[in-house]
Amino acid sequence: MRSSLNLLGTTLDVATGEWIKYSSGIGAGVDSFYEYLIKAHILFGNEEFWRMFQSAYLAVQKYFRYGPWYHEADMRTGRATYWQLTSLQAFWPGLQVLAGDVAAANLTHREFFYVCKKFGVLPERYLLDHQMVHPTEKYYPLRPELAESTYYLYQATKDPWYMEVGEAIVNSLNLHTKVDGGFASVRDVTTMQLEDHQHSFFLAET
Questions:
Q1: How far apart are CA 108 and CA 191, in angstroms?
Q2: Is 137 a catalytic residue?
Q3: Is the pTM of this model over 0.90?
């Protein structure tokens, strides 16, 4: 299903096997593909998972990476399509640690944390080319990816700075999202308006 560039899209027609969306990246629709290829290799020791991951990872580094950031690109041509950061992409530094690419993980993680500090929590979508939060995706549904990447980087480096990042994440959750019944998703990161919802992945992964 890969393109000739070893890239994958984000949405398949399960009946025909045809790609519906050709724009690809490391965020929604494809993030778990990369994450569980390497975690399946670690868990099961299957070399095929590792070979699939390596070719996919190298393609991401070649076609999506722009300094410490990752934009999206057309899986067929490699041309950039969307210049945006999404909260789901924050898993990537943790994945890079598992792959042994710790220096690159550190650079990307710091950019995610910079955006997180800017708003107090990480917005669902941030437009890199305009340096602003997406006008219709201003929410923060308590995603755990940045916390997970912070954990992996601390375990890999023992740099106390990552402990400080972890503490900042906890303090921000307590300050902005803690309510009587648990923790609430943020409807709008620019106003910190909350909504009456807490996803199961918040408790499972954070």
A1: 26
A2: no
A3: yes
